[in-house]
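It is worth pausing here to work through a concrete case rather than discussing structure prediction in the abstract. The textbook approach is simple: state the sequence, then state the predicted structure, then interpret. We follow exactly that order.
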Amino acid sequence: MSLALFLLAESIFNLGLSAFFLLYNLRLLGLGFDEAFLGLSASLMTLGSLCGTLPAGWITARFGVRAALRVTFGAGAAVCACQALSTDRVVLLILSFLGGLAAAFRAVTIAPAVAQLTTEQNRARGFSWFFALGIGMGILGGLVGGRIPLSSLWIPCAFAGLALVPTLWLRFAKGGVEDRPRLIYPRSPFVVRYLAAAAVWSLVLGAFPSLYNAYFARRLAAAPAEIGVIFAGSQLVQVGGILLAPRLFAWTGLGRGIVCSQVAAAIFLALLAPRWPLAAAGACYAAYMSFQYMSEPGWQTLLMNGVRPEERSGASSLNFLVMFSAQAVGAAVFGWAVARAGYAGPLVLTAMVGLAAAATTSQISRR
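Step two, the predicted structure:
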């Protein structure tokens, strides 16, 4: 029951924020801001996420997962509502940073929350449902958001705030961070190997996905409507991949399943380097994103299974600190390389980094 309440709260929040972020940049453009401002806003949000990971871990450990979730839902909805109402440049940039802080709380609390609401046997399935519902709500939020007037952008923010309601009945089992109010960072060789592998893989996660729409628009001359269809189709394929992930992990084992999904993602990423017809390129992109997201439930399960209950918040904060940092580097380097060499070479090199990440991942569980 508690897992269902948690997923309900997350689904409500995801739906509201998906609709909001579909429209937010359009509102900024309508106010006269240019792409440079949008990029600066996104950078400040990433900076806020980086600054918030360690404090979020401490607060999660000190006050409990439920309290941290309430901060996530309440602060996230409030910041978005202020963004929907403000028109001042400086205020909007400050709100972007604060939005990043709120996003850090959400990222850090996910793994400890699912870990406490599941057992080791069904944990991968719990993470799969979480990520699948998140993507599904993103699709629905996009469809709903397209029908909301820009002048009513506060509506999805208010809906996101309703995620607080299920937390009134949400309870977490004792024996984890709820009854150990200290933030403990794990220091085992396993965690060191995990974070090293996460850093390499996050370089891949931050690279091409940040420019996928530019890839289709500039390299394949796709119209915005065509890009939208490709994106929606890829989201549906991702849901299927994530829901199939527990079966893959049960068949191959958790570590090998993650490696298999990473290798497959790297192969399909490399297949985007040739200049295919739009439909074929869209299929390769959907497959790449599906295998990329298929590894996510495995990653979170692997980390939560490898640390003690009292170390989960600390492990999660370290994980996202490393991932956010590496993704920022991956996005910057990939964009710089594409601007100078086009897409083909950087895509192949990024795929090679993905294969290196798979090799690094295979060493995580070594004793």
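Step three, interpretation. Residues 2-179 form a domain with the Growth Hormone; Chain: A; fold (CATH 1.20.1250.20). The chain has two domains: 2-179, 189-361.
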